[in-house]
Amino acid sequence: MDLVISDIHADIDALDKILNVASSKEFTKKHGKFSRIINLGDILERGTHPKEVIAKLKSLEKSYPILSVMGNHDEAFLYKRMVSGSSFASMDAHTQLNDEDISFFEQNSDGTFGKQEFMDQKNGLFCVHGGPLDPDKIMPKNALDDSWLYQRTWQRLTDEDFEFFNYYGYHYKASSAFAEVKKHLKNHIILCGHQHLEAAMVQDSHIHEIYSALRPTKEKISDHILDTREIEINPSSNYLIRLGLGGPEGYYRNGSTVPHFAIVEYNPKKVVLFTINP
Fold first, then answer.
1. Where does residue 169 fall: left (phi above 0), alpha (psi -120 to 50 degrees), or beta otherwise?
2. Less Cβ crowding at N or C end of the chain, within 10 Å?
C-alpha cells in the first residue's frame, strides 16, 4: 500500500497528524500498512516549519522509500522565484534552511532539482504535482521569461471547456492528460495535487467526472473523524485523481481548512481519499 501526500507546505503539525493517523492500529487494521510514500510536491513555502518537515521526511527515508516529484513552491524557493502568498514568518523560517536541509532535493546534472514526474510501470501510476503534459509541446516559441509556467509543476486541470495559459500556469483538459500518459502507460492512474481541492475523473468510453458522486463515509481513527472516499479502480479504465491540501498552516487566513491525504491499495486496487477533521 502507498501513502500519498501533497502540498504539505512546511506544516509539520499536519504532516505529523497524517503520519500518526496512517500508522495507527485502527487505520492499519482496516486499510493495511503503507510500505512506501509518494510525495507529490510542495513541501515548502506558505507554512512556517520547513526545516522540521524536511527533517521528518529525511527520517522517514530510513524506513520507507519516498518517491518525490517537485512542486511549484519547491522550485520557487530553490530557484529564487517570487511566488505570492507566504507570510513574513514563513519567509523568515525558510531563510534558516541550510545546504544539509536542501540536500533532500536531489540535484540533477544540469543544475535543476528533483523530478518533474514519477512513473510506476508495474502499478500503472503517473505521479506529478500539477499535470502530465509535455511542456515542449504546449509552450509557444516566444515563451521566454515565463517558460517555467508551462512545466508539469505549474500545470493545472482547467475548470473550463478549453485549455489556456495565464500566470498561474498552463490549464489543461483531462482529455489531454489521458492522451499524454497513454504514450507511456496503457491503463493508468494520474495522481496530482497543486490546486488544493480533491477531484477525480475516469476515462472509459468517455471521460466522466466522478468525485461529486463519491459519498464520504465517516470513520473514527484515534482522536480524529475521517471523511473517506473510495475509488475502486477498473483495470481497463484510466483515472485522474487530485489530492486536496495536505498542510493548511499557511492558509488559515483564507478560512479554516484541514489536512488531506490518500492511499493506493492494490488487492483489490483502489485509491482512497481522506480528510482529517478536527
1. left
2. C
